Amino acid sequence: MRRLLSGFVAVSALLVATAAQAQVKIGLIISYSGQFADTGIQLDNGFKLYMKQKGDTVAGKKIEVIRKDNGGIAPDVAKRLAQELVVRDKVDILGGFELTPNALAVGDVSAEAKKFMVVMNAATSIITTKSPYMSRTSVTTPMLNDAMGRWAAKNGVKKAYTLVSDFGPGHDAVAAFKEAFTANGGTIVGSALYPVANMDFGAFVQAAKDTNPDAIYIWTPGGTQPAAIGKALNERGVDTSKIKILGQDELTGVSALKSMGDLGLGIITAAHYDYNLQNPLNEEFVKAFRAEYNREPDIFAIGGYDGAQLIYKALEKAGGKTDGESLIAAAKGMAWQSPRGPMSIDPETRDMIENVYIRRVEKVNGELRNVTIDTVPDQKDPVKAKMK
Amino acid sequence: MGLSAADASPLAHVARRAAWRPLEVVFWLLTLLPFWLTPDYLQLASQIAITALFAISLDLILGYGGLVSLGHAAFFGLGAYAAGLFSKHLWGEPLSGLLLAAVIAGLFGYLLSFIIARFRGLALIMITMGVGQLMLEAANSAGKITGGADGLQGVKTWPLFNAIRFDLYGNTAYGYSLAALFLCFLVARRITNSPFGLSLQGIRENSTRMLAIGAPNNAHVRRIFTIAAVMAGVAGALLTQTTETVSLETLSFQRSADLLVVLILGGVGRLYGGIIGAIIYMVARDHFSGVNPQYWYFWIGMLLIAVVVFLPNGILGGAERLVPKAWRRRA
């Protein structure tokens, strides 16, 4: 009897050991409720789709995902959730983060607990400096606008006027645009900041038009503003064939185009992803995404998809090791083909390097689309390049 | 309420109200249990204690003074930013930071109270809401100082008494927040059981009559509003110090509105109502959002409807009916 018992103990101990060893826990902190719920759900959809395609076992270990709701901009909640995930649920990897304040707050936890952390959307440059174990699979606001500034200066725009929402990301965006634009020979003929909740752009557009620029650069966080901007441009008689309208993807995103209608025609924006991108991987991705969720993938979905991809690839390269040191070492310099095009992780900044697409709104088969007219390859974050 | 035959004088009545009930002692001893029972949940416990303190502060003006505020987060956020900026630019010693936040929030509350004391009802709701929105917009515009939408970065809290570090598990955070909550609670309890507290309840019930018996209504309202502002500021500072982050969200309308929900859930005008409300609301939130991250608001909504329909005086109001008469707090 005793032998039987000890045998049983040995076997169960072995089982426990293998079970504990063969598992990787990922804690996702995403806003599933509140104002940003749809963003969070799309991000998670992308993450889930990758896991579905590749299975839930990597390097011989089973992936377990624990999801937590951040409920919008709430860095105190994000930090607490991250601490709980680390001390209570014993997660190995932290992921998600569609909002900058939340990602910044969790950076401290990642640094202190030495956990690999993947930011899948938040787009402020400095985030990745908060923890040496942090990487990112989205884009930074300055990356897009740096690319746009250079492209505009090299493509016939001499004089530009800037019109930007008066809050942090807007300031970052216009700073990057101005710097790249003027460094490449362009001149800024005027600038304006509009209030965050502004809904009437008539006076702003008129003031911009009066300076007689080649282009008006507009930055908006999206929402209902793109439609109001389109209306003002139309009312004030801005002809997009004479005055180029430049912006970032939010200005002509999927929902923005729906609300703008034909008023959006001719607007040029910079983006790192769009579901209309013409490449075989993306066509496959969009098809799978539609089949699974019955909607188009967007920049949030691709952030989640590549976030999962980076975690899988880093785990594989690290041979299943789950500590922060091994995973971030594996992530540095990692390069892969994404539906967004070729992308890699900069070994110096742990931020992504990827294509930025310059697109113009055109009508294709009676449907408004962002059609790629140029590609700025291997774009890096300009802010961190300057910090060195 | 009202004087019973047992009270020889008004002062004896006040003294009897102020005596500690056994249930209260048990309750405060129970608040120490998380250290042993749920050591993995101390961060949550710390944030519950902070919300409870914030709720007590609102209860002082709403439950006792009868002033409805939808902008109480203005003081919470002011305290949070004051503590954050203090720690970022001067030094991160937590107790002095807490004191500074209390003074700044109190000063702002005192100045504002001159306007507040002139209004009641709907006008007051609009004014407090307006002040809250103004503060939010001011913090957003002063992005260079406050960090704007990204939140304030670089807040570092030094170890408590230069010895006890704020750890990842939240032992220090909970101990610190709980101590602050208990001290503020003692102050609030003392106030509500004083002649001043009774005058406030008189103002709540019938302000004209209080004037008729010679009570300086406006002065009373100004005083309690300032005290409530100090406590809200302390709560905000605690959140900053225990999480080392401050965001615009500390000033948001959502925070003011959630607080009202917490207080109504627990029971208005009882002090313990705010604490019980904070425990139930935040534990329910944590539990439901763990079970289903997407649709947990549904269950919170159900909980609220159930409480309002079946326990119109809040959870504590309902529970009071179950407690033996001898144990009851006479209020």
Number of H/I helices of chain A: 13
CATH-assigned fold name of the largest domain in chain A: Rossmann fold
Give the low-confidence spans of chain A.
Answer: none
Q: In CATH, what is the homologous superfamily of the largest domain in chain A? A: Response regulator
What is the CATH C-level name of chain B?
A: Mainly Alpha
Please give the radius of gyration of chain A in angstroms: 23 Å
Provide the helix percentage of chain B: over 70%
For this structure, the quaternary state is heterodimer
Secondary-structure element pattern of chain B, one letter each: HHHHHHHHHHHHHHHH
CATH fold title of chain B: ABC transporter involved in vitamin B12 uptake, BtuC
Q: How does the SSE layout of this entry go?
A:
The complex is a heterodimer of chains A (388) and B (331).
Chain A: H1 2-21, E1 23-30, H2 37-54, E2 57-58, E3 61-69, H3 75-87, E4 93-96, H4 100-113, E5 116-119, E6 134-136, H5 141-154, E7 159-165, H6 168-183, E8 187-194, H7 202-210, E9 215-219, H8 225-235, E10 244-248, H9 254-260, E11 268-271, H10 280-293, H11 299-317, H12 324-331, E12 335-338, E13 341-345, E14 352-364, E15 367-379, H13 382-387
Parallel strand pairs in A: 1-3, 1-4, 4-5, 5-6, 7-8, 7-9, 9-10, 10-11
Antiparallel strand pairs in A: 2-3, 11-14, 12-13, 13-14, 14-15
Helix pairs in contact in A: 2-11, 3-4, 5-6, 8-9, 11-12
Chain B: H1 10-18, H2 22-30, H3 34-37, H4 42-64, H5 73-89, H6 94-116, H7 121-141, H8 143-146, H9 171-192, H10 195-205, H11 207-212, H12 217-243, H13 253-266, H14 272-291, H15 296-310, H16 314-320
Helix pairs in contact in B: 4-9, 4-12, 4-13, 4-14, 5-6, 5-7, 5-12, 6-12, 9-12, 10-12, 13-14, 13-16, 14-15, 14-16
